[in-house]
């Protein structure tokens, strides 16, 4: 069984940061990068599917500059068989739809039985890339999956979709399909030190747009939006901050609670 | 039609609240957009979509009883073709996440999801949304796009008052090839039903990732009891298997409106805020001064939650 997993190296802002001159981006010196939390769950799901089938491979794919190799190495250390990183200067600042266009072309080469993406990334929080990838590929898709049973004889997948308010829908989807995976679906494994070392020996292919039959115009055409400005949220609606020692803070909180909670 | 097409959302035949919020978002830019505002309902056609300013309700039949993402996708694609709206508004909800991005991708539309504010600047629509996990706000434009699809974050707009003179209803015939149906509904189920109903509590002590360790849970259970509060949690604690989903506040858990919501070590992911921002008084303690929860809290303190928790004990017998 072959499973394709799309992942992202996400960026978290440092406490102090500076904007780039044009005001539509943050200076990359002021961000911490890490594998997107959601992707650790889709990786785990993919590894379990491969291992249950007893054969096949897990291919992990990302769009990102060379710093994104770290995210791929983390996935290889978890147990992915090989990795593909797509980068081109034209992809700098690409939005969800542009990234989806590129991921779709990369997945097309793989002909996987099942494709998994995280529901969303922790930095952009679009919740859109996976389903857009499926749309470009013309494949069935289910968003926000919290449980997955694959039946190779269909092939179909019976999945639980996590709806609002604690409601769950169980549905059966035709495969190959693309599913977006919710956190909490499984317990992502930790890589052993040995696996982390061995990850560097696994295949990690670097691919440019040309190799995918794409170019800068195709990426720009797919993009759904353009950032006009980026700024800290307006304060004002914010909280009244309680200052002082923990004892002073606790005393204020106790007063507020006692005043506002009816006994 | 030009103008704005709002796609209402239903579940098990009932209209969902987001539909009236989307109408509010659409009405806010209707004049600037210089067109009509129509509300489309795919599948079931519940009452209650009449509101002042809605010009027309469009009903679209679907071949499936429950929401099916591929049917919704095909129906909306055909509806956009027929009606030619400038702006399409969906909720940033679980159902719409299942087909909205697909419609935008295939149609080459302008697109923004998790939008907090819908605007218009003369040339076309604008969207304001979070960036870097809501620590920044981005303003997005859609240059060169004839049509734009936005998915609006639930709770961003006050729902319009339903009622007024009912707008004309028009059934739109769209032919959706049954072959697009790629999934089959099996059943709806409730996640864990616990021994506690956190939506009924007047005072919630809510803890999040900041407590760091499963072994800390008993300490906060004891603190909650001492303070006369009910203990609730944010999602990561449920994902980790430390607490039951029944105690989870947020989009996928419960929506709560207690008199006081005291959040310890909860940074305030969007999905969490959606479940608690209507609490009457929100107090947040977090070690990160930039935590988004301070944006909705009434009182905040940048402090170590364990230090504050220890001190709090002394104020309650």
SSE order of chain B, one letter for each helix or strand: EEEHEEHEHHEEEEEEEHEHEHEEH
Q: Sheet bearing the most strands of chain B, described?
A: 9 strands, mixed
Q: Roughly what is the average pLDDT of chain A, rounded to an integer?
A: 95
What is the succession of H and E elements of chain A?
EEEHEHEHEHEEEEHEHEEH
Strands of chain A, count:
13
Structural class of chain B: alpha/beta
By DSSP (H or I, 4+ residues per run), the number of helices of chain B equals 8
Structural class of chain A: alpha/beta
Q: Going across the major beta sheet of chain B, what is the strand order?
A: 9-8-7-10-6-1-4-5-11
Work out the largest interface and the residue count of each chain: A-B, 86 and 105 residues
Radius of gyration of chain A: 21 Å
The CATH homologous superfamily of chain A corresponds to HUPs
Question: What is the percentage of strand-forming residues of chain B?
Answer: 25-35%
How many DSSP-defined strands of chain B? 17
From the alpha carbons, calculate the radius of gyration of chain B and give it in angstroms. Answer: 22 Å
- In the predicted model, the low-confidence regions of chain A spanning at least 5 consecutive residues are none
Mean pLDDT across the residues of chain B is 92
CATH architecture of chain A: 3-Layer(aba) Sandwich
Number of domains of chain A: 1
Q: Looking at CATH, which topology of chain A would you report?
A: Rossmann fold
